[in-house]
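PROTEIN DESIGN WORKSHEET
SECTION A - STRUCTURE
LENGTH: 292
TOKENS:
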């Protein structure tokens, strides 16, 4: 059985306690959780540590926010903010800190911006190495990692500097939004993928825009189950598993978290994890490509 986790951002609109979220996730069949930073802030590390232990539900990542592309005169606070987030990972025995690069788009970044960002990553790598934690940056519109070319630039720098503690949070839907085939991207990025987000929709949508995600009146009609949307999730999961990925697959469901629906998502992912299913996915993908 694969490491199948759910991001607690799925419960952002509901007043569930840590114990209730853990019980809900277990009932849906998940064996891990990605802890959304506001849940950590609002409840406190001690509660999550105790409830996670009692519920036997491991925390696979801390999903947090830090703008490493803010180069204003007051931007040096990023070091202390990073230290706080890493301390939370230490206290909760969380192996991965998930971040975005920041609010600067790769399309707007200059060579100087990239150089300053990479200079900060030198420090980030040293800090993560000392704490024995991985720090991953999500592929996401509106950040430096918002196109295949910009992610290529990032992984090439990571590889050149041998930053072993820095990697990618591969978000399958957002990579598809780049206008590229996610599996083609994985051919190059796979060695740098340390965490994976899975979600799907019927096509391009504004449902994942922060203004919609965090609005009480957000509209999520475009969202679909993992196997039913525009992104070939099964092929992506199969590729990663066949190429040695051993991390968690985190379901980032932003609609109403209904138990039966989420159980189906877990069942779908587990169905891919046996070798026979992986072979079927590969063969079906080859047949599909040949029919185009």
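SECTION B - SEQUENCE
RESIDUE ASSIGNMENT:
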């Amino acid at each position: 059985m694969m490491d199948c986790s759910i991001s607690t951002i799925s419960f952002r609109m509901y007043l569930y306690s840590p114990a209730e979220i853990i019980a809900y996730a277990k009932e849906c069949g998940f064996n891990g959780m990605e802890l959304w930073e506001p849940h950590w802030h609002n409840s406190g590390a001690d509660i999550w540590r105790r409830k996670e232990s009692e519920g036997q539900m491991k925390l696979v990542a801390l999903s947090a926010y830090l703008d490493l592309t803010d180069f204003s005169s007051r931007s040096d606070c990023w070091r202390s903010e990073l230290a706080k987030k890493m301390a939370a990972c230490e206290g909760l025995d969380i192996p991965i800190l998930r971040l975005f690069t920041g609010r600067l788009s790769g399309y707007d970044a200059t060579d100087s911006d990239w150089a300053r960002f990479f200079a900060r990553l030198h420090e980030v790598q040293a800090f993560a190495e000392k704490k024995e934690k991985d720090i991953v940056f999500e592929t996401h519109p509106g950040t430096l990692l918002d196109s295949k070319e910009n992610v290529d630039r990032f992984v090439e720098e990571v590889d050149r500097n041998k930053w072993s503690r820095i990697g990618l949070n591969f978000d399958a839907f957002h990579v598809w939004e780049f206008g590229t085939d996610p599996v083609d991207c994985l051919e190059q990025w796979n060695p740098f993928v340390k965490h994976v987000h899975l979600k799907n929709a019927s096509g391009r949508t504004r449902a994942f825009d922060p203004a919609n995600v965090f609005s009480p009146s957000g509209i999520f009609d475009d969202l679909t189950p993992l196997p039913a949307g525009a992104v070939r999730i099964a092929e992506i999961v199969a590729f990663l598993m066949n190429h040695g990925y051993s991390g968690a697959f985190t379901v980032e469901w932003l609609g109403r978290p209904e138990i039966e629906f989420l159980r189906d998502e877990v069942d779908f992912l587990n169905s891919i994890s046996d070798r026979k299913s992986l072979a079927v996915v590969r063969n079906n993908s080859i047949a599909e490509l040949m029919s185009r």
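SECTION C - NOTES
The longest strand covers residues 58-63.
Strands lie at 4-7, 32-36, 58-63, 96-99, 134-138, 166-171, 193-198, 249-251.
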